[in-house]
Write a structure and sequence with these properties.
about 280 residues, mainly alpha, Cytochrome p450, two-stranded antiparallel sheet, two-stranded antiparallel ribbon, 9 helices, 10 strands, oxidoreductase, metal-binding, heme, monooxygenase, Cyt_P450_E_grp-I
């Protein structure tokens, strides 16, 4: 789990497998593995000369070369990685987006006004519009800052004994980056708990504050799906707000406190989608 106890102290799965969520994770993974195995088996029964998708292409490679990297288990693991990395993060991000738009209707109206001006009514937003949607981009940057999907980033390991800022770090030490602390530091961000897209705008120019804004991590283990994630979030978010207005149901507003899972996600809430004229 992104910010969970088991990610910070992996050994705890041997001491309290249920309490730390390890058993629950195994249950979900086993069910997903079974589903993907059935999907792969279905492709094997109906394989075509021209690959239909990644699974077909992988199976085709298995028939023409013998390699330890091309096995059924590797294929399922690859599909599992793609499914979890793509579906989970996008789903959680869109959940937070809906929540913060309901909680900040003034921000929602500004995004819609910008979309109307740049894209035009009756059209779908595309990536070609992105460069001209400065405020919308600032909203998405603020969304990723304040939601902190992976508050402790990806676990790293010290490959050798070293010293950092006076601290001795032994070889094989698990190292976690506290991205939540960075993104919510009041010394860097004024009123960090306030949803304020303007903090990423400087005289109507986008300022991503790259020195201390790193929702996708840094270094060799920086999120490989960063470009895809940003693209998906932009297209889904703009399409949603361009065609609908999000409002609370019966004046019941969601609580801006996430719960921990594979990533941090908003607690379940109801939202009313009103089609825009």
């Amino acid at each position: 789990m992104s910010g969970g106890l088991i990610n910070q102290m992996p050994f705890i799965r041997y001491l309290a497998p249920s309490a730390c969520g390890y058993n629950q994770i195994l249950d979900v993974l086993n069910r997903m593995w079974t589903f993907l195995q059935e999907t792969v088996d279905g492709h094997k029964r109906t394989i075509l000369s021209q690959p239909r998708d990644l699974i077909d292409a992988f199976l085709h490679s298995m028939t023409i070369k013998v390699d330890v990297s091309f096995t059924d288990d590797q294929l399922i693991a690859l599909c599992l990685d793609l499914f979890m990395a793509g579906a989970e993060t996008t789903s959680s991000s869109l959940g937070f987006a809906a929540m913060y738009m309901v909680l900040n209707p003034d921000v929602q109206k500004k995004v819609q006004a910008e979309l109307d001006e740049v894209v035009g009514r009756g059209k779908w937003p595309t990536l070609k519009d992105k460069g001209n949607l400065k405020y919308t981009q600032a909203v998405l940057l603020e969304l990723q800052r304040i939601s902190n999907l992976a508050p402790m980033g990806i676990a790293h390991r010290a490959v050798k004994t070293t010293k950092l800022m006076g601290y001795d770090i032994a070889e094989n030490t698990i190292i976690l980056t506290n991205l939540y602390s960075l993104h919510m530091d009041p010394k860097i961000w004024e009123n960090p708990k306030k949803f304020q897209p303007e903090r990423f705008l400087d005289r109507n120019k986008l300022n991503a504050h790259e020195d201390y804004y790193i929702p996708f991590g840094l270094g060799k283990r920086r999120c490989l799906g960063e470009v895809l994630a940003k693209t998906n979030l932009f297209l889904f978010f703009t399409a949603l707000l361009h065609h609908f207005t999000l409002e609370p149901v019966e004046d019941w507003y969601p609580e801006a406190l996430p719960f921990d899972g594979v990533t941090l996600a908003p607690k379940p809430f109801k939202v009313k989608l009103i089609k825009r004229n």
